Automatic annotation (TrEMBL):
InterPro entries: MFS_trans_sf (IPR036259), MOT2/MFSD5 (IPR008509). The chain crosses the membrane at residues 6-22, 67-87, 99-120, 132-150, 156-177, 189-213, 225-246, 281-302, 322-344, 356-376, 382-398, 419-435, 447-465. Keywords: Cell membrane, Ion transport, Membrane, Transmembrane, Transmembrane helix, Transport. GO terms for biological process: monoatomic ion transport. Mediates high-affinity intracellular uptake of the rare oligo-element molybdenum. It is found in: Cell membrane. One of its GO terms (molecular function) is molybdate ion transmembrane transporter activity. It comes from the Eukaryota. Pfam families: MFS_5 (PF05631). Residues 31-57 are annotated as: Disordered. The keyword Transmembrane helix applies. This is Molybdate-anion transporter.
Amino acid sequence: MELYTIWFFFLAVAVSLLAYWLNQQKAFQQPETANNTETETDAENEKTHSRNARLPNGKDAQDFRNIYFGVYTLVLAADWLQGPYFYSLYRYAHGLPESTVALLFITGFVAAAASASFVGSLADRYGRRNACFAYCAIYSASCASVLAYGRLEILVLGRALGGLSSTLLYSVFEAWMVAEHNARNLGSVVPLSSMFSWSTTLSGVVAIASGVFGEALVSLTGSQTSPFMMAIVCLGAAGVGMHNFWNENYGQAATNTHREDEEARAPLLSQLEPNIDLRKLSILTLVTTVFEGSMYLFVFLWTPTLEAAREAATKITPTLQWNLPLGLIFSAFMCAMMLGSMLVSVLNLRYRSHGAVALLIDTLAIAASALFIPVLASNETYIFWSFAVFEACVGMYYPSIGKMKSSMIHDGVRAKVYAWMRLPLNAFVVVALMLNKDGNENRRTIFQVAGALLLGTAFVARRYLS
């Protein structure tokens, strides 16, 4: 049996056990929370009843969850099915050098960054459901582009469409859900926080399942294009579901345009909180650039790094299977990321004094150590588990950085500040991938530099954020 199968099941069982324990802990705290909020809920229900002849009930909430998450599961599956195979498909099936594969990744990354500036406003103007339809069509075209063997220009166009699709996926679907939730007045029976929680959990579960299913597809068909074709099927089914069950909704009325234009022209610094610490904001930008930049580089490099380690292992053990179960490895990494996210919840339950800053510093240091392992070791097992630890750090990072940014930047300029914070991140990833060259030594150098930057950032954060 492939060792990755055992490791995946080990991580999956760990996720299941920890999830069960967390649910039990939350169940113990639920009665107290319910008692504290019962009066507020009753008052809100009375206000809602005065505005509406009929209050929404549990069936309304269940119907809304079904029509949204039924479609959302399909679009997530379409996205996650392909993830493990991009590098391998371009590198070996298309026969492209690693530097060209890096340029394809840059194309998708730049397209996603550029489209973020206009996708939201277009969706608000022409309809969120229409934007979701556009996602299904555009991403289907991106998936079909991998069949264009020997046509580099088609592959480049496909990656550009993929970058645009990523922006649509992580913006317009959520926008439609929030607007429809408000239009149906479901806040009293299914809070938005509950919908977001379900979305986060569903994304992790679908990612794990998609990796396993994608690996089964590749084993059955013998082709790494099969997950891309199955993604098109998922997107088509999602489009049918939206056509049959979703209403159209739009953004804010044009009456707000003048005020928003004035805010957009105002200097960014003048819109920040008066007591904001600009030095701390700069440090957070540094943290975002280094950690998330290292994460994007990891996404590109984990496949060739493990393949190089497997190739070395087959020279020692000729009976070892050369082809890696990429879908299974991807699912294992997603389990590790969920474990990291759950660990934050455990720390919040058990050690409330362990603040976001301390957790962020610890995460940076652990992530740095994990990226040094592929530099120092060539053993496949060590490299896999170092990558799993790094993925766990990704799961720990987002709750910590999110809490810190939300406390520092107010809602009125949050999107604008976040966009500015991503500029150095985009530049970091593009430059790093453009400098990428073929060969394992070059990959080790990238891991070494990324690990050193993470460690240095941890010291800076400890000095100025603590």
